Amino acid sequence: MNTLAITRTPAPGSPLRRFSNLLYRRPNLYLSMLLVPPLLWFGAIYLGSLLTLLWQGFYTFDDFTMAVTPDLTLANFTALFQPSNFDIIVRTLSMAIAVSIASAIVAFPIAYYMARYTRGKTKAFFYIAVMLPMWASYIVKAYAWTLLLAKGGVAQWFVQHLGLGPVLQFVLGIPGVGGSTLSTSHLGRFLVFVYIWLPFMILPIQASLERLPPSLLQASADLGARPRQTLMQVILPLSVPGIAAGSIFTFSLTLGDFIVPQLVGPPGYFVGSMVYAQQGAIGNMPMAAAFTLVPIVLIAIYLSIVKRLGAFDAL
Amino acid sequence: MYAHKTALLSALTTALLTSVSLQAAEPLKAVGAGEGQLDIVAWPGYIERGESDKAYDWVTGFEKETGCKVNVKTAATSDEMVSLMTKGGYDLVTASGDASLRLIAGKRVQPINTALIANWKNLDPRLKDAPWYVVNQQTYGTPYQWGPNVLMYNSEVFKQAPTSWSVLFNAQDLPDGKPNKGRVQAYDGPIYIADAALYLKTTKPELGIKDPYQLDEAQYKAVLGLLRAQQPLIHRYWHDTTVQMSDFKNEGVVASGAWPYQVNGLMNEKQPIASTIPKEGATGWADTTMLHAEAKHPNCAYKWMDWSLQPKVQGDVAAWFGSLPAVPAACKGSELLGAEGCKTNGFDQFDKIAFWKTPQAEGGKFVPYSRWTQDYIAIMGGR
């Protein structure tokens, strides 16, 4: 067909020519022909499956027969507010917030250095160094951390040799932070999360800092601002969109994760592990579907907050 | 419009769900020629063809003899097995007791005709007509392997084997003078409720627990109370064998329920680890090779079920996995297992073991498995 069209221009009345004329006269038709297939894909496969899943949340799960029946009920969604289920939501949400804040604090200096003080080869080195952990499998990294944090592991060895043993014991004793050992404490789980999601925070901040015009910094210095003032009043406000964009990654990834909570940290499920247990172990698909709604709602709220911070202004 | 769409979607999913559960096949009357292929869902290490270790191969011989090419899909949990069998496309599954009744109730597997399995006569009489694979006098598959959930302990802390599960359930000082808090583990699965029930069966006879998998409301409440009191003592709820082995080596954990697999592994590494079955008895697992309700290769499947009950195959699997054969002759029939293999793995402890099975409500008399799951999740989370 193609070669035909190229080698021989069709006569004015030929079907091909009439078709191309039609497309030219009606640009909307042309556009819809291009857009309908991907939109159908998006609508049917992505939104369709998501809606089917959420719709299952209204089904009834019979405790006795362990069967799902299509009788509609709101029981699954009200069950989310039972104390034990609500614990899971609060546990996951507080971890996601803590991880996002800590990642931002750790990532900012690295991103700042990358954006302002590296050129050519050093910049490439930093890019690779930040991305390198992502080349290794996520599961391997999580397992490696269980060994690093173990009682006989590297982390504790350093703590002991620095004479910080009592400090660690004190920290592990704080409820909500500690646990029986470092690898079964909230602190340990938090460290692993921050490590694993850090690249997702560094890169957006670095991108936003690179867009920051150097002339603004010069102007700030000319007007007599001390470096600290420049940082607080010029650089930080302008990098908020980058930090917000990075925190979307760290927040939503922590919210949905179910492997790190399983390997490191104290007993108690996360939303991800709960969904996994509900649909896998008991086949309670309706409850699993109800739990799936939790991260969707939380992320929607989070996105609306972040939007106010201007994370999407640069899109 | 929107309401129509969602109604249509829900109708579609319902139709899909019901259409799967309509099958109920008749057992085969005679085994014909093989179909040339066989697809098995199995625990890792259950179906070996000499790729991990040349000596451990019980597939190649089967393929040569029957012409059935064996494909194995390994599954790490009982839940994964149930979900793979629900999706279909497999002929056989090596289902543990906490999966088998769910598979039967969900009509994912079909009864078999034991007359077609020549090696059926080899079967350990203790396993015949066991409730986790025989339902309404119909036999759903051939037993494959079994094993106890032993009490694994650090032999430097316990100079003598602990005689009771109470070292895990009640706060106390261990023989080395330090408390057990933060140094013991429990299993991260609702089936562990049965372990607590088994302990209460002996220590609190007034509750009248007969079967740790069938608990009425009062018994269930007492069991949950015990598990709630246990929660602060727990270092970690284990579910990954590698993590548990590392916890015993590096984290100072000294006692936990475990499988012989971890015990053998740690002993091979010369760690000070031993295991015992305390006086209250133990829970255990017994796996059954079950035939899918819509198996595409039933003849090959029957041939495999027969093959799998040979003493040599049974003994080799037991040696590789640290489990026990379903065929007593296997204790003498395998060089890999050795003369003492069966004794080491606990062959004589059969009567002390309450085998895993899915708790069922039976019309509201007992607490069903779905509540076990929800309550155990709450307990692990500290509620």
Automatic annotation (TrEMBL), chain A:
Domain ABC transmembrane type-1: 89-304
Transmembrane segments: 29-55, 88-112, 124-145, 157-178, 190-209, 234-260, 281-305
Membrane topology (UniProt): Multi-pass membrane protein
GO biological process, one term: transmembrane transport
Predominant cellular place of this UniProt entry's protein: membrane
Keyword Transmembrane helix: yes
Cellular localization per UniProt: Cell membrane
InterPro entries tied to this protein: MetI-like, MetI-like_sf
PROSITE patterns, alphabetized: ABC_TM1
GO CC, one annotated term: plasma membrane
PANTHER family, alphabetized: INNER MEMBRANE ABC TRANSPORTER PERMEASE PROTEIN YDCU-RELATED, INNER MEMBRANE ABC TRANSPORTER PERMEASE PROTEIN YDCU-RELATED-RELATED
Family statement drawn from the similarity comment of this UniProt entry: Belongs to the binding-protein-dependent transport system permease family. CysTW subfamily.
Protein name: Spermidine/putrescine ABC transporter permease
Organism: Pseudomonas thivervalensis
